[in-house]
Design brief:
With 178 residues, this protein is mostly helical. Among the domains are: 36 residues, no CATH class; 52 residues. It has 7 helices and no strands. The termini are far apart.
């Protein structure tokens, strides 16, 4: 029996023409960036770099932004957001301090009772314009703060026909000689 003869190996491909392939790549690149195929390689590279820059900037610098739109760097935007949050916190703290000051002053004046302090603070938090109403309450409305009755001044005693020195004139003093 005869043995089968192996098929001849395919002939190796001739070495690829790298110059033609390279030129084909440059031609494709020139087509992609919109320059003629016979453009110098350096100019094609510049056109590619410009196209990449335009792709990184969504709106080219030549096109105006819509009315009221301001472009910011992401870092600047984050800093502004953080500063605004800090400002809101500080403003809220300042408003709370002012409400507490107004309510404390009203308690001191006797316009409201100390037991109503929390209710007034909650009310002023909901309606900041209530500060004017609270300030308009008269002193001593809820708690009298002015002295009532005899104040001990000699003019009042004289007018009433009393002399404090004579009140106890007949009472012997305890161990103190007159």
């Amino acid at each position: 029996m005869t043995q089968p003869v192996p098929a001849p190996a395919p002939a190796p491909d001739p070495e690829p023409d790298t110059e033609t392939d390279e030129q084909a790549l440059w031609d494709q690149l020139a087509d992609l960036v919109g320059v003629p195929k016979d453009t110098d390689h350096a100019e094609i590279v510049d056109a590619v770099a410009e196209a990449l820059d335009e792709a990184a900037d969504p709106a080219p610098s030549g096109s105006p932004d819509p009315q009221g739109v301001v472009r910011l760097d992401a870092t600047v935007h984050a800093e502004l957001v953080a500063a605004a949050a800090h400002g809101r916190t500080a403003a809220a703290r300042e408003a709370r301090t002012e409400r507490e000051r107004v309510v404390s002053a009203a308690v001191t004046r006797g316009a409201i009772t100390a037991g109503r302090r929390g209710a007034w603070l909650a009310s002023l938090e909901r309606d900041p314009d209530g500060v004017a109403a609270l300030a308009g309450l008269p002193d001593g409305l809820a708690v009298p703060v002015a002295a009532l009755g005899h104040d001990g001044s000699p003019a009042i005693d004289q007018a009433a026909g009393r002399n404090q020195d004579q009140w106890f004139s007949g009472v012997p003093s305890a161990g103190v000689a007159p």
